[in-house]
Amino acid sequence: MSSGTEGKVFTEEQEALVVKSWAAMKKNAGELGLKFFLKIFEIAPSAKKLFSFLKDSPVPPEQNAKLKPHAMTVFVMTCEAAVQLRKAGKVTVRESNLKRLGAAHLKYGVVDEHFEVTKYALLETIKEAVPEMWSPEMKNAWGEAYDQLVAAIKSEMKPST
Description:
The protein is mostly helical.
């Protein structure tokens, strides 16, 4: 099953845009990660059910002590993977992490629509974080990087035999 991202080239220009914007966002990764996840939940409230620490929590997500560290980890990993994409020619999340991510996304019932919502939320978060740098080219660069990361995660989303 082809996801359409194999063989797509992440260009030098795209890399430069991703690297430049990530450098500007890195210091606020905690806040931005939280914003990113709150945006996901705003678009798709049912996504909260995919997180064991949010599922039955009476606390609103933005006050949940476990959400911010989780959100920051995901945001940083996504951005770091994007920055490394061209240099490595592929997604460079450690294979053990990719397997774990694939297994976790499968176990919690993540489907294509979730990845689409997440992509939109990521792009909106970055756009708000670096408005003076944002452009259609930057949007495409981050979109391509995200698509390649998702393709790598999806390739590991298979039931263990």
